[in-house]
Specification:
- The structure is a single chain.
- With about 280 residues, the protein is of the alpha+beta class.
- The chain is built from ten helices and six strands, in the order βββββαβααααααααα.
- The chain has helices spanning about 75-85, 100-110, 115-125, 140-160, 175-185, 190-205, 210-215, 220-230, 230-240, 245-270, and strands at about 35-40, 45-50, 50-55, 60, 70, 90-95.
- Strand 3 and strand 4 (about 60) form a beta hairpin.
- It is globular.
- Plays a role in the assembly of the F1 component of the mitochondrial ATP synthase (ATPase).
Length: about 280
């Protein structure tokens, strides 16, 4: 893997003008780099510095939108980010570089939140968790929700020894305080980088329960995305879909959920990459 990236350095994308980014949780602005930019480098590499692993493009070191040195905590994450940059063709499509964006967010922390604030923001999604809100009509959709969502709720209740439940009320289920405290305690075991990834996955799936099932490797990305879009998929099966738009949205959601989950795992695992020398 090291041989794939000859020694070089990397340039940061141009910073976004204040107020131009999309609105994130709590009304904060998130990074919104230009959609595309002409590729300005030939080679991509990684190197180890005092603060961690750095990404290099040609002879420049990559920096964040706030001009911080782009340094990641694990070699595996550095290789994954370098692969994003190396896979760009004639133009750099920033909207495809989810790992790079997550690293920028972790390094610059544009919302200026601490660890507990990140955790509470994640747990807050329990109050509006997609799979806890059920319908009574039509009967076919209600049955589909029960058959598909009940097993993942049951898994979560057993896995974390909590009570979650579901409700057909517009107010949603009454999540016990003890359940929220359990999830707060569990999320506290993750580092700040991983928590950024967890919150990202949750915002994509609109569900803490599905996100934890995905991160815990209980369900696949494809399954998590399908469960998060259950009602939409039901309506599409019944009424049809807009040609190409549905498939595009589905692929995009899968890509973002997969990238966020990978980011969590690469930030949580301390094992180093094993380098294999090819011999004749």
């Amino acid at each position: 893997l090291w041989g794939r990236f000859p020694p070089v350095y990397l340039l940061r994308p141009p910073p976004v003008a204040a107020g131009n980014g999309p609105v994130g949780p709590g009304g904060s602005r998130t990074y919104a780099p230009p959609a595309e930019r002409k590729r300005f480098y030939q080679n991509v590499s990684i190197s180890q510095g005092e603060g961690g692993y750095e990404i290099n493009l040609d002879h420049r070191k990559l920096k964040t939108p706030q001009a911080r040195l782009f340094t990641v905590p694990t070699e595996a994450l550095a290789i994954a980010v370098a692969t994003e940059w190396d896979s760009q063709k004639d133009t750099i499509k920033f909207y495809t570089m989810h790992l790079t964006t997550l690293c920028n967010t972790a390094l610059d922390n544009p919302t200026q939140r601490n660890k507990m604030q990140l955790i509470r923001a994640a747990v807050k999604f329990l109050d509006t968790d997609t799979i806890c809100y059920r319908v009574e009509e039509p009967a076919a959709l209600a049955e589909l929700q029960k058959n598909e969502w009940d097993p993942i709720v049951a898994w979560a209740e057993k896995r974390y020894n909590v009570t979650i439940g579901s409700s057909t009320s517009i107010l949603g289920p009454n999540i016990p305080a003890s359940t929220k405290e359990t999830f707060i305690s569990h999320l506290a075991s993750y580092n700040m980088w991983a928590l950024q990834g967890i919150e990202y996955v949750i915002t994509q799936l609109k569900s803490l329960i599905l996100s934890m099932g995905l991160i815990d490797r209980h369900i696949t990305v494809e399954k998590a995305v399908l469960l998060s879009r259950l009602e939409e998929e039901y309506q599409i099966q019944r009424w049809g879909n807009v040609e190409w738009a549905h498939d595009y949205d589905l692929c995009e959601l899968r890509a973002r959920a997969a990238a966020g989950t990978l980011f969590v795992h690469l930030c949580s695992e301390s094992s180093s990459v094993k380098h294999k020398l090819l011999q004749d």
